[in-house]
Amino acid sequence: MDEEIKKYQIFQNELSVVNGVLFRNICVVIPESLREKVLTLLHDGHFGATKVKLLARSYCFWPGISESIELMTKGCESCQLYGDTKTNEDLHSWQKTEKPWQRVHIDFAGPFLGFMWLLVTDSYSKFPHVVKMGRTESKDVIVVLRQIFSLYGNPVQLVSDNGRNFISNEMETFLEKRRVSHIRTPVFHPMSNGHCERLVKTFKVSMKKLVETGLGLDEALDRFLFNFRIMPHGKGKESPSELLFGRRIRSNLDALREEPIKPIINKELKEKFKKGEEVYVRDYKSEKNWEHGKVNGIAGSNLYYVQTPTVKNKLVHTSQLKQNVGTKKIFSKSIGPTTSEKRMLPDRSVKSKVGSYKV
């Protein structure tokens, strides 16, 4: 028996084939030729081996995947250069929240990589927001909070330190109008805002790694946030996006088990125009309202690709098309009467008989 096949024997009761794809439970079994590419996707955010393993358990499998992940993270130069040492920090323990957006924590990080960064995180889901700030006054923080609250609603509580930009009259007025209770942590005790302290630490380490790979700050920030939001936190736990939205954010890893999108999803779609049909196409640039065209194919519901004298494959809506009836369809090639018309003509044989009848 082939050595590669032997590795799957202990999992044989967990294997199944769906649409020609081999699965172990919900995970796609990755062939050896694609494992390096999948490892790159898993390590896109440059998180540690433990979190990458948690992420992999939701998407993919192969015998020895945990060892492969360990080797990859240990061999990543950016992770080795900027890897963090584990410390047992005595972070303040907050009461657990029961649903999203009950308590939100906010803090600044920096100066870091030349900027100050505003971090906002939900205590229930750990869903993060990080914004690169040019200015850090209260009015600038309020602008960011207003945008975030417009997406998710007003939180019940907001936790911050005693920085002037967080405790100003302007900030207090803003929060009071939105019925948000403001909780301040003790002075000179930043670890009381433990949720943000953890996020600050993870954010800085990950950003250093991503920037080391050659990414600009904005792209590095987007990649960090995206990967953090899809990463499960703790064994068997859901990701921040699942806890906040009730669904998993679609990533490139989801493409491993998705069926290819078909050009026409609705088989019962009624085609108003046929491929190859001569049509008139709406022309918005010339004095004439319409120009000649030809249907190349259907793009979807009420959408078509057409060829015009100036564009080879133009996407248009049904409302921008009309039939080109043409004279060939109006007049028959024959100049004689049609079959139905012939039936309406008097029968000459009958007329001759009537004419020859004598009274």
TrEMBL record:
Stretch list, region Disordered: 337-359
Transmembrane feature ranges: none
E.C. code: 2.7.7.49
A GO MF term: RNA-directed DNA polymerase activity
One Pfam family this sequence matches: rve
Domain Integrase catalytic: 96-248
EC class (word): transferase
InterPro entries xrefs: Integrase_cat-core (IPR001584), Integrase_H2C2 (IPR041588), Retrovirus_Pol_polyprotein (IPR050951), RNaseH-like_sf (IPR012337), RNaseH_sf (IPR036397)
Composition bias type Basic and acidic residues, residue spans: 340-350
GO terms classed as biological process: DNA integration
Source superkingdom: Eukaryota
Name this polypeptide is given: RNA-directed DNA polymerase
Organism, as annotated: Strongyloides venezuelensis (Threadworm)
